[in-house]
Amino acid sequence: MSEPVLLRPAEAADAGEIAEVHLAARRVATAAGHMPPGVHTDDEVRVWLAGRLDRDEVWVAEAEGRVAAYARFTATWLDDLYVEPAAQHAGLGTALLGLVKSLRPDGFGLWVFEANVPARRFYAFHGLEVTLRTDGSENEERAPDLRMEWSGARLDELDELE
What we know:
This protein is α+β, with helices and mostly antiparallel strands. It has helices at residues 15-31, 42-52, 92-103, 117-125, 155-161; strands at 6-9, 57-63, 66-73, 78-83, 108-113, 129-134, 145-150. The chain is built from 5 helices and 7 strands.
């Protein structure tokens, strides 16, 4: 990434790029054994994500004029944090997670597949803790997963998040 990264709220026009980031990241993670295969077609995912743009808070990391990563979250949950494979390990996920923390200083939770060791390490490194393990019987993929939570910023962290 030679140009600076811009974090900004997603716009309706970003829907296609957001979906492509999502699909590409999931394909790579699935091929590596970190995620189970998706249960929806690519077109179903595109339509579903486009519909979430006006319901959830969605921010993108724009690099070199295109969406390279995104975070989708609600008042209490980080539902998606995906970085396109070519842009991984460049700090985009860290930047977006920091943004979510700054916007949700009281904390939030997320679900991650048990097999997704890289994501689990990433979240643990950034202060999230495992609070529940499941057998996956309640998720669409039927794959074991973990609920991880960030309990919120301590007073000394609030200055760092601003």
